[in-house]
Design brief:
This protein is mainly α. It folds into 2 domains: 2-122, Arc Repressor Mutant, subunit A (Orthogonal Bundle); 123-156. It is 74% helix and 11% strand. The chain contains 7 helices and 3 strands. The longest helix is centred in the last third of the chain and has 31 residues, at 125-155. It is globular, with a radius of gyration of 19 Å.
Amino acid sequence: MDDLRKLDQALSRINRISTGRVSARNRSERAGILLSRPAISILGALQSSGPVRLSSLARLTGLEAPLISRETRELGDGGYVVRSSDPTDGRAGIVELSPKGRDAWNRYRHAADDINAETFSEWSSDDLRTLRVLLERVARDVSKGPSTLQRQKKAS
């Protein structure tokens, strides 16, 4: 139980550090992009998903609908996204990356990659591969949730 508790603490600490203000500011400054963390999250989700309704964007980012609406409006005003009406339902809005938004996301992503490369520069490629494999396993198992894991265990 002690190892599980320490694992939980380490994962929480990594999450706080990697998603915190200082890390976001470092990536933004290095990329030359002065956008809020929610705005960056929206750009990343749009890069992955392509054009989506605002309601889907809220689910993809984990952000509340009012924040999505405000941030996409500001991103639109800045030329990072294009907002339009959904052709199947004119009441719903569709948002997609503009070329400027795609460029901003790519610069942000490259800055994050550079920071990761610096952070792990003293790690061997074997250590990095092992860490990646284990973290992917952690992500997969955590995403299943405890009830799914218990059902699988009982079924075996």
